[in-house]
Amino acid sequence: MMGAPATILLWKDPAKNQAPAPELCCYLLPGKMKRPAVLVIPGGGYGGVCEATEGEPIARKFNELGFHAFVLHYRVAPHRFPEPQEDVFRAIRLIRANAGKWCVIPDQLAVCGFSAGGHLAASAGTLYDEIHADAGDEADSQEMRPNALILCYPVISFTVFPHMGSGKNLLGERFEECRERYSLEKRVSEKTPPAFLWHTAEDQTVPWQNSVLMAEALYEKKIPCSLHIFPHGPHGMLLGTGTPDIVMWPEMAKRFLIRTCGFDIPQK
After folding, report:
1. Which residue, 119, 159, 169, 246, could crosslink 155 as a Cys pair with Cβ 3.0–4.6 Å?
2. DSSP H or E run through 40
């Protein structure tokens, strides 16, 4: 059993580290072998961070599958866009800046987001040319675009089949003005990373069409994408424990990262 993860603050600026401070929790496998990494982004409707359910358990699962893992604690309402997006990009840069010390392969970094955390993960794959996440240190030189996306019952659109709560928490008074711009199916480009997506058809909180919209946008740009709509299960199925189908998604995502994205997971 691995011990408690190390936790580091994302920012040097005290104004950005107001309680609860944005942090990166590091779930590093022992040894000196270089490994791919997964940055886990819990959901919470941009009003909270569901770390207990969509954070540590997911990170531990990716550890079992041979990845170093990290969990992002990001700013939420009353903080607004682009502050959560700044946090995810800063986390990506910190992981890459510490790749040597943490034995991470820097160009094999996936972000894995759940629900509203899926919107934040998809932001990392679509808004990297728009958001400024400089902190005045050596990490600023690192690339912000992740190498792959894993989107789990994600909020994608604020216009079609939207999750209104997430959109209003993120955009606040600018919701009507900005809801189309930050519907991320509209922001996919030829540089968006490959994506693995899954949803359940019975999700009554974030409609499954969100994942389909994102997949269609990726396919249109010829971006590799693996889309899975499981027939049963409510919102928030996490690791799918106790199900014969959803429980397989982490292994399926691992295979996608290996085969499609070229991730190299040590056999030992």
Report:
1. 119
2. strand 35-41
Given a contact cutoff of 8 angstroms between Cβ atoms, the answer to whether 254 and 76 are in contact is no
Residue with tokens 């993960």: 121
pTM for this model (two decimals)? 0.97
Where do the H-state alpha helices sit in 50-191?
A: 51-54, 56-64, 83-97, 99-102, 116-126, 164-171, 175-178
CA 203 to chain centre: 19
The DSSP line for 200-211 is: ETT-SSS-THHH
So what's the pLDDT on residue 268? 63
Give buried/exposed letters for 150-178 (b at 16+ CB in 10 A, else e): bbbbbbbbbeebbbebbbbbbbeeebeeb
Tens of pLDDT along 137-159?
A: 999 999 999 999 999 999 999 99
Task: Transcribe 129-165 into DSSP letters.
Answer: TT-----SSGGGGS--S-SEEEEES----SSSS--HH
Length of the chain, please?
Answer: 268
Q: Report pLDDT for 255.
A: 98
Tokens of 42: 């819990």
